[in-house]
Each structure stands twice: as C-alpha cells, then as structure tokens.
Amino acid sequence: MNLWHPVSLLAFGVFCLGGIQAGETAVEITKPPLQEKGTIAPHLTSPPEERDDVSRSSKPHIASASDSLALRSGERAGVRGRSIASHINVGQTAPKSPLHSSAPAPLQRFDFSGPGMATTFRISCYAESQPQAEAAAEVCFKRIAELNHSFTDYDPTSELMRLCAPGTSYPVQVSPPLFEVLQRAVTLAQQTAGAFDPTCGHLSQLWRRTKRQGKLPPQTRLQSAITATDWHRIQLDPTTRSVTLQTGTLLDLGGIAKGYAADECLRLLKQQGLSQAVVQAGGDTAVGDAPPGKPGWEIKLRTFNRAGDADELTTVVLANRAVSTSGDLYQFIEIEGTRYSHILSLKTGLGLTTRIACSVIAPDCTTSDALATAMCVMGKAKGSALAQTLPDIEVRFAEPEPEE
C-alpha cells in the first residue's frame, strides 16, 4: 500500500480520459501521427454535464481504418464520480514483416472506440494483424453491450431493474456477471463502511431530478431515500446464485459497472492472445501487459493549478494494474449559491459541497472504480486511513488550498 500526500492541488493529477456523444455507434481503428509507443496522451476539453449512471447504448460496429482518432468538443463522459476528457494516442505501428519470413509477425498497435454505459470505451492493443485486433475488439464491444443491458437502471427491462421490481422480495436467480458485480459491490460497501453503497438507487434518481429542476428536494423525500440506502438490505446466496432484496430496495451500479466492464474487456483480450492492452472507460482504466520494449503504459495525469483548473501533467507508468479517478473538476451544479458535486453523500442525500478529488490505483478496475468514489465521500483523513488497511492500493487526494 502506498499513500501520496500532496499539499495542494498543484500536486494532484486527474486522469484525462473521455467520451463521445451518447448514441454514436462508430468503433474507429486509428493510426495517429507518430508518437512514443505506449503512451496514453490526454486531450483536454470541457465536457457537458455527464449522465449519472450506466445507460443504454446502441451496438457499436467496426469502421474502416482512419488516419487519426480525435475527440470532438461536447463529448459525453462517464457515470457518477467521473470528470474526464481525453483520447488515447497510438504511436507508430510496427513495420510489416518481409514476405516469406518464418519469424513471427511484429506486433502493431491498434485503437478502437465505441459508446457504452454513457461514456466511451477505448481499447488499445498490440496484435500481429488488423483482422486479429478487430476480431478481439468486436468481442469486447459485444460484451460491453451485454453488460450494459444487464446493469443499467435507465431501462426498466434490464436484469437489474427486474430484480428491483416491486413484489420481488424473494430469492431471484441472476446471471453470473450480475451476481459477481453485486458480490464485489457488497464487499466494497463493507470495506468502506457504506461510503460506497449499491443500494443508493432512490438517492440517485432523486438527485438526477434535482439537477434537472435546479432546486433541492423536500427533506421528507431525502430522508425516505436515505433510509432505503443500506447495503445490508442485499442478501446473496452463492450456492443458488440468487439475490434477495428487502422491499423497496433500488440498486444503482453506476459507481462500479464501468470498472467491471473494463476488467472484462481486458480479460477477453488476454483470452484471445492480446495481453499487451489497455482499456479505458471514462475515468476508469484497466491496464494489461506493458507495450513491447516498455516497462508499462504511460498514463498522463493532468494536475490542477492554483485556480483549481486542469493545468500541468504528471505521469505514472502501469502494467497489470488499474486506475480510477473521481472528483468534481467538471461535474457540479450550483443551487441557491451552493456548489454541489455530482458525487452523493449518502448521509445527506445531496451532492458533496467540499471540493475534493481522488485517484486510486488497484489490482483491478472494479476495485479502483468503487474506491475512488467512496474515498471522495469519506474525505482525505478517513480515506487515507482506509487505504492503509487495504492490500496493494495506492491513493492520491487533492483539496483546494485554503483562501488567504
């Protein structure tokens, strides 16, 4: 376990990862201008307000090769707890092997992107050929669509919403992915003392309405939603792979689903022989084996200046790890003169009013996704103390400097 303790926003890096407009379906193979291999280079824009949760998206398709992958302004980023905008640059592809050579084909780098879970999933991988990379990416995007349809709380026909339907307070057998993500969610809720809680669905829906209307909800409705938020309301039976929810429980997997999906994509890539890969899902990044000849993938972190804006860059080099960032750099709303983050306090039922951001490096993206949001809710002191108790976790906090 490693703790970073920057003294100001100047020392903090926000990962610059981003999204395209929801509803776009293109998955682009990209060959940008020459650049150092193994680098994820940010491209900062100012994204609009993001959706708060996993949402339904159309099935992506593989497009023809293009000269470059560039984000456009006004792109939509990820789910609750993410403030991101960027793109992955893929460097020069390796030269093709001579004809009739018996040596293995040199690895080339390929990029793919497509919508899912209200953000953009981006895959960079090394493969011997374009068909091999395309086939692997197609499997990944199909999996993203499947998980999205299972996990979303925007679609009343999704597996998650059927589980939460009124009158289903009895054991319900669910799919292996949904059971696994709920198992992980309950474990993380326990570890964070409820700072991360998958039963916050009523609060999430109430806050979405608050942001649309621009006014705070009545205290009675807030208290009712807070009372219904308690991860102990979930009972899991691994023997039958069944879930029992107390009456009135509404689940929201927005703080863990993208990380889980990124892990799944990386697993599928490795299964198809492409272990030198990285998968980005908004502010969540799952990293596989290092690029050829490199110690790892360079993740560029955009730091804050004294005004609290994104400014300088720092770099971390990762292999077979995951990183997630949560914070309110972009996503916030002002109501009656008070700035509220898109990250909910499960005690007040409202967005956080203290500016804070947190980056977590963990063994897997499911863990880093949930912990990044939870630690923002807990605050630096309690979050740092929690990190001390968790194996193989690195955490970085940032808070604004006190006004003089």
TrEMBL record:
Its cofactor is Mg(2+). Residues 31-76 are annotated as: Disordered. Signal peptide: none annotated. This is FAD:protein FMN transferase. It catalyses: L-threonyl-[protein] + FAD = FMN-L-threonyl-[protein] + AMP + H(+). One of its GO terms (molecular function) is transferase activity. It is an enzyme of class 2 (transferase). SUPFAM superfamilies: ApbE-like. PANTHER family: FAD:PROTEIN FMN TRANSFERASE (PTHR30040:SF2), THIAMINE BIOSYNTHESIS LIPOPROTEIN APBE (PTHR30040). InterPro entries: ApbE, ApbE-like_sf. It comes from the Bacteria.
